[in-house]
């Protein structure tokens, strides 16, 4: 049977410090577009959109703690979330032509165990790429983290770091839909403008221009913060702890400021967790997968009615993958970073 | 009307670093044993037992965050938990001869607003001093923190720091009653022996003799920790985070290792809160006061049947107060530290 080209992005070596493009490698392999005989519950996917996510950096470190159930090995393609089309299925739940999202490999075509497919895509009147973002992992992350762990009440004060990112931009909009006051931090003026003018945040600031994060937070939250949606860790978390209100909540989604450091920054203000009876809760998105149908019911009408916006930053072609991925860690992306490798 | 002597322990000045006896002062005042006319809901107390508690150090720092609703001022007596007898009452809920526990002042006789009385003492077949400990604030602290926030399940692995202290010794025994595996850390061999031989901990270790806390925890918890009852903070918390299991819980009760530091130690392993989906929750005992009747129903039979032990370290006389209190921070106390100033 005829083989076709299967371009891939390999991890070349485990990474220390900031990742470089040269830590990855574009490899041209080939694949037979057929589920091999006797391979059981395997599904052959054509990958359309690959998602660049900060957690992927964690997996690039040798001996990293097991995280989201995935392991990277040098000489193998990266694994990550993506939107794919089923070309052939060894599992009854999927059939040729289905659109799905879940864990796939950074390559044009992938054979994956069916269990790696997270959900079948049922609604295609919205951009397919949304299933890497607002309708995919970042969407449920923002929804579960904010509503289930943040337990927001009308009028509460919400702070979101990495606020223009894939998750942060949604948390801010969900907070506004809940009639909260919401402030976001981001790393460029352009992002700050988007937060205020496009995404409806009440206020936003560029953390790189604040010499004193504690003072910046006191300026925006004179009465303190009820919910801090944690995406960055380190110095930001330390300043936030000083500004939390009693019975505040900190859903901890990520700590992107720490992933590239060989020596983590120390957080010194943890005693405020006690003084102010704060609940800080780390989570991984799978905890909220059972809420996905409910989440779609909530979010799809808002998208269709234009009440929620979603900023995407799409690059074309697998070759652009390494640059796109490492750009997350210097804040090059403007919104959800996606690598488009095929449109259908 | 005749006046009587009223010895008091004053805060002399706000404290920086480790507190010294000379930061406090014994003052001899006098008092008329009568509720002044028109003073409303005030109760006149004869103080019997005063409780030495780590949180008192927090209040000795100038501009400290408001904590447990109390404020210390130089030139005024310390405030703290204590067991007292009502001599006269301006409030209908209390009458002469009642035994009560709650917030009182470090002095022989106190006039306090009735709202500072926490509970009337109904059961006197157990030592009265217990109402500063197992039947008082530390008891509800251990009960609420462990059961409500720790959510223990049979067979889970529990680590308690400051394990022989007023709260820790109860958490360990509650964990054993729940059929958990429990290990405690303390600062002397004598305390370690008490944990293992008297209080029923499965294991215990002297943290001062462990050069590598991470290794010590891995030795005692090869499969990791489900619940860490946090009393100390700092380096211990940092090592614990490396050893938590998925979905672990950290009720955060205190961080005594940090209270005397002018520069708090940085905790570097917080990203594990995310990797392992840990819930860390700070609390102040008042959160659980509504559970006090239920707590008594649980704990009193265990005390009467000898199934729960409680180690007290009682010194005599108000003059011993300053030394007793500061001894908490160098681990001089063996169990719950109490200043007895009168027996009835």
From TrEMBL, chains A, B:
Matching Pfam families: ADH_N_2, ADH_zinc_N
InterPro entries found in the cross-reference section: ADH-like_C (IPR013149), ADH_N_2 (IPR041694), GroES-like_sf (IPR011032), MDR_fam (IPR045010), NAD(P)-bd_dom_sf (IPR036291)
Alcohol dehydrogenase-like C-terminal domain residues: 166-299
Keywords: Oxidoreductase
Keyword Cell wall biogenesis/degradation: no
Domain of life: Eukaryota
Oxidoreductase N-terminal domain boundaries: 7-117
Protein name: Uncharacterized protein
Organism, scientific name: Stylosanthes scabra
